[in-house]
Amino acid sequence: MESFVDRKLATDEQESFKIRLITTEEEMQRFAIKPMAKEGWRPGLKDAELFLACDPTAAFVGELNGKPIATVRISKYGDSFAFIGAYLVDKAYRGKGYGLKIFNAAVSSVKPTSNIGLYALLHLEKMYERSGFRSHFHAARYDFHLPTTIACFPEILEKISVEVKAIEDVELENIFRYDTHVFGFERSAFLSRLLRAEGTLGYVAVNNDGLTVAIAERLLKALFEKLSHEEKAVPLVCMDASTKQGMDLGEELQGKKVFDLVYMVTKGLPNTCLEKQFGVTIVDLG
């Protein structure tokens, strides 16, 4: 039987460059996560599992004569929105057209009417514009030195009438509903894995009605103070600030900017609450 990949994805028989789905955690780790780490992208320890939980049909590998040389993900959120990430090509094969082939193959796997988004490094902005993407706002990755950052939190935070709870003390369904409201699309399968992953620390700000609210400073303070008291010291914390207010917070807390990003989409901004967004857990998933 002819498979989806056989029908939809480009294959250059002359060069034996074939594109197929990544279907297991082991393949995800080998073909995507390890190359991302080698590039200095700092993927999480559980990202292989989380990528598959978000969308098990999103990740592709390009193999030249059986050797993996390129990967890309296009996570689908319903039928109307998709997000590209984990897009990289082995340095020895860049500039030869393989990246464009796997990129176009991934894009062709979603509905033609879908809006597609991504975070691009600034020097690649023009390249994505040629593929129909348009820039909307900037983002950045920050590194925080915990003792320095904790000292920056204003004392007024303690007077805010919001209770901060550990993730495990909050009903996940409440978090799912709030995330759908802010992110714009349902992704409970991904969140349930993320929030319960081994080694994960998470906090939720709760108002008097028991509903989660975005109080970024209070949450970061609780998280950073917890990390500072861990038995195994955590001297450095990374945050991908996904919006202007997230970047402003990064500067306020004396974070060191690692690199700049730009948020780009093909059909205009999706229906999300950007004013409530400060950072993303995995930039490759949107």
UniProtKB/TrEMBL annotation:
It comes from the Eukaryota. Residues 17-163 form the N-acetyltransferase domain. InterPro entries: Acyl/Acetyltrans_Enzymes, Acyl_CoA_acyltransferase, GNAT_dom. One of its GO terms (molecular function) is acyltransferase activity, transferring groups other than amino-acyl groups. SUPFAM superfamilies: Acyl-CoA N-acyltransferases (Nat). This is N-acetyltransferase domain-containing protein. It comes from Pocillopora damicornis.
